[in-house]
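Researcher: Structure prediction, please.
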Amino acid sequence: MSKSFSVITGDVSKALAQIRSAVPDTMKGFGQLSQGALAAGALPALQKELIALAVGVAARCDACIGFHVKALIRLGVTREQLMETLAICVYMGGGPNLMYAAEAVRAYEEFGAA
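Model: Predicted structure follows.
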């Protein structure tokens, strides 16, 4: 059975809401960390999200791949930018990263930017 990144990100979002209710200070801190890391600076938002996707691929995190591909699509990533980022993932991580790079392509296609 093939995984759906829409289902994965939806399910994780629901679970994160439960964590937010149980430990709001922790989630607030994580949110601030995210905002700080993604804030405007020397790197544009698109590059920051490509880096985040690369880390998600390297960590073999399906939810990370889904959330960051959605953000990249929102930011107007091109297929070429995505593929070049995934090429670096494969170069740095070999076969296991290749398998998750393929998952990132599936997420990109599933979220409708192909």
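Model: The CA atoms of residues 29 and 35 lie 10 Å apart.
Researcher: Thanks, that helps.
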